[in-house]
Write a structure and sequence with these properties.
- The protein contains ten helices and 16 strands.
- It is of the alpha/beta class.
- The strands form four sheets. A six-stranded parallel sheet has the order 3-2-1-4-5-6, covered by helices on one side.
- Strand 5, helix 3 and strand 6 form a beta-alpha-beta unit.
- Helix 4 packs across helix 10 and helix 5 crosses helix 6.
Length: about 350
Amino acid sequence: MYKAALFPYDAHSLPLVRHFNDFQNEYELVKIYALPGSGLDGHDAAYVCNQPEVGRLIECPICLDSCEWDTLILMRQYVNSDDMAQRIVHEALLAGKRVLCLEGKEESVPKWLKEISSDCQELQIKTLRSFHSDGWDSTYIQDIDTPVILIGGFIGGSDTLEIVLSVSKALQQNGLDVITVTQEPVASLFDYISVQPPKMFSDNLPEYIRSIKAQFWKIEKEYMPDIIVVEAPDAMIQYSKLVPNGYGIYTYMLCSAIAPDHCICCVPHNMAIPELINEISNDFFTRYGVTIDIVHISNLIVDGAKTFETRNMCTFYDNFETAYDIASRIGEFQRDVLFVNAIRDCRSFSQMIMRIVEG
């Protein structure tokens, strides 16, 4: 087993750190490095999201001469620039380290990285697995029979990858064969799958949707899973007219292609109002063909003043205990939709998952 260091660490990486040993056994995580100036040095990895500690400390700056690890796991897309990423790769290789780059789609890998990889076997590039639908005869493509759990949020990044990994883990621990679909590059470490229609279909929505359907059909035929866990490709609702937050268009096209059976939604704690959630759940049924089964109450909330000022979605991680207390209080009385804070009440969350899957 290789001893690995992760760089650069930020909020996107916390789910990877928390579940590092759940879905792979090739690497042991021994060091976590953040970018200079991040303010994370000496803090627990969960500090970046203001969440309960996970028992792993962040260090800064990166120490390429360390003898404690032999493999650098690089998340290039979170480095400040490609020039800096190239420098880190070259210096790590010169220091005798292996380098594993976690990337999203194959076409997103830069040319310079491919060139180094072709000349140096100590550099490996790991991308999300994909199934291209080019050239498939759509007359032979049918609806999939495999149950699908859709996981998304009211705002982007609201613990959705964390919930995707938690759900996949719970299902696997209960003996189910799970296929997980996400667009998050960090999930390439776990050999997860990306479903992304070719750019040629971007102006042809029916073909775009058929392409998604074709890829899921291929996934089902090749892997024959018991269940498919899918992360929504964008935020599931419009935030406001000034800041639409994506409108949920890509999620709509995804659901038009595969018709999910269940939905788990990540909701900021200041929007976790049962009456509001029930209304949105009914809207989801009209829009996506599925109601909300479980709500994960997140401590990631919208910074309304900054969002209004910049006309861009701005968020921050609020006090975790506030989110947990709200989840506990609502969970005692609400029955139509299950409310939980999945990060702390992971056992209850696992039981909820199996309850909705088993019907």
